[in-house]
Amino acid sequence: MAMSFGMFMALLDIQVVSASLSDIQAGLSASTDEMSWVQTSYLIAEVVMIPLSGFLGRVLSTRWLFALSAGGFTITSIMCGFATNISEMIVFRALQGFLGGAMIPSVFAASFTIFPRSKRAAVQPVVGLIATLAPTIGPTVGGYLTEIQSWHWLFFINIIPGIAVTIAAISLIDFDEPNLALMKRFDWWGLIYMALFLCSLEYVLEEGARNDWFQDESIVLFTILTGVGAVAFFYRVATGPEPIVDMTAFKNRNFAVGCLFSFTLGIGLYGLTYIYPLFLGQVRGYTSMMIGETMFLSGLCMFLTAPIAGRLSAKADPRIMLAIGFVGFAISCWLMTKMTSDWDFWELALPQVFRGVSLMLCIIPINNIALGTLSPVQMKGGSGLYNLMRNMGGAFGLAGINTLINKRWDLHIARLHESISDANYQVKAWHATMTQHFADLGPDAQTAALKRLSTLARGQAYVMSLADIFLMLAAIFIVLLPMVFLFRRPRAGGGGGGH
Fold first, then answer.
1. Alpha-carbon distance values, 285 to 12, 346, 448 (Å)
2. Which residues of 24-54 are buried (b: 16+ CB within 10 A; e: fewer)?
């Protein structure tokens, strides 16, 4: 319970902050470009720690790694809350992401290490619920905290739980021993290559869409660094005596395919958590609190589905369960392709129900199939890689979504402009009515009417571009569906050490 709560804090923090970036921007007098680094610095640092946590867990033991991670996350949360300028905030957020990043894979590994197979049907729904619920309700929590208190409390809210989790970790976790002798064989070059590879890749994905991809020199440079870092890192892993990341888990077919599904789930989980607030904020004009209240339905459905999914995981074929979840996810996205600028809570309700239920039907069988068949020796390293794949799926998904939104928006604007001409009787009638509406402006009435028409066209084109994204996401889940049969069904209870 203590470890799960720590993971919940680390996952929640990403979305809580992202929902209130405008408030932080005003408080720190920062530019929009600078504010993007509040999230980017956190994610870049976290993406290095997640795979590194497997080795550190063997060196320090789960107890001390988790305690240091929770304690470091709490201290850096306090530092973020007291930041007085954007430079301090970026540095503190990077430290927060790096120090807190070890909690997430540690929980996944522990859930398979300390519980027998007979208990996993009860444990895995809790882990799965936290992994998916925290990002989903992040905008809700962030909106309430900012509205009721101030943006500083987005970070101060971590203090008391963080202290409690740190103390509980030291007091309660005791199922493995440290092996400090491993530090003598620590692969520093492997760490440098991994950091170069993952940090550069994360930068390209986070900033690419904003900077028009390869039209920007920094994106080109970091893409080259990504390639160089990747080649050096994988060569080091293949030839080094004690690799910093244990890649042997990929020899297990269930784990390898499970990572692919985890990557795809990351696209859906983080992509939809991004698109819904985008629609509600940009099109509907909702505040952070209103967005959170609207999206709360998904979190409620996940919470209610968790125990049902847990029972099913103990009895049903996890491949069938996963397939049903992916179909439900595709339906959720397909329903959103019919969206209009007038859609409100009730129109969004059914897609959110499908989304919430399907997430729980997906995450539990993926966890059981991918991690449940790893040997105890592979578990810590495998958990880090598995969680890294979900995070990278989210990063790739958001980069693709932002790029496609801009391209499809331009396309729909061009098509609408073609259809809006003097030859269109309805357009002429609407323009005449609006000109009359702006009659008080005198000779500028026609110009004002045209500006209103242009604004409406851009708004409709934006909604159409978002609908295209939902169609793309639905297609991704349907295309991946047949690959569930690449899994070998694990033994009852979701465990085993076989390959």
1. 24, 17, 22
2. bbebbebeeebbbbbbbbbbbbbbbbbbbbb
Helix (H) or strand (E) holding 498: none
Contacts of 253 (CB under 8 A, 6+ apart): 486, 487, 488, 499
d(C-alpha 207, C-alpha 221), whole Å: 12
Nearest one of 136, 141, 404 to 295, comparing CA atoms: 136
Phi first, then psi: give them for residue 384, nearest 5 degrees. Answer: -65, -45
Question: What's this model's pTM, rounded to 2 decimal places?
Answer: 0.81
Task: Give the pair of three-digit tokens for residue 444.
Answer: 């500028």
Provide the phi-psi class of 279: left if phi over 0, else alpha when psi is between -120 and 50, else beta: alpha
Number of H-type helices and E-type strands within the chain: 17, 0
Q: Name residue, tokens 């595709």.
A: 330
**Which of 209, 255, 276, 225 minimizes the C-alpha distance to 36?**
209
Residue 115 three-state SS:
coil
Tokens of 374: 């790893």
Tell me 95's DSSP state: H
**Phi/psi-derived region of residue 467, left when phi > 0, alpha when psi is between -120 and 50, beta in every other case:** alpha
Q: Which residues contact 123 (CB under 8 A, 6 or more apart)?
A: 111, 115
* DSSP letters for 455-491: HHHHHHHHHHHHHHHHHHHHHHHHHHGGGGGGSPPPB
Inter-helix orientation angle 318-335/288-315, to 10°: 150
Question: Could you tell me which residues are beta bridge partners of residue 322?
Answer: none
C-alpha to C-alpha distance for 452 and 209, rounded to whole angstroms: 28
The CA distance from 409 to 458, in Å, is 8
Helix (H, G, I), strand (E, B) or coil at 129: helix
Scan for tokens 């709560």, then name that residue.
5
Could you tell me where the DSSP H helices lie in 283-336?
288-315, 318-335
Binned average pLDDT, 10 residues per bin, the chain of 499 residues: 86 76 78 73 84 86 91 93 87 90 86 79 78 75 78 88 92 85 83 89 82 84 93 87 82 89 88 84 80 82 85 84 92 92 89 90 86 82 86 85 87 79 64 66 70 78 92 93 83 45
| 244 φ/ψ angles, rounded to the nearest 5 degrees | -70, -25
Distance CA 464, CA 295 (A): 21
| Residue for token pair 């709490």 | 74
Q: Could you tell me which residues come within 8 angstroms of residue 479 by beta carbon, excluding any fewer than 6 positions away?
A: none
Element (H, E) at 434: helix 425-437
CB 255 within 8 Å of CB 488: no
Q: Is 114 helix (H, G, I), strand (E, B) or coil?
A: coil
Tokens coding 260: 């692919």
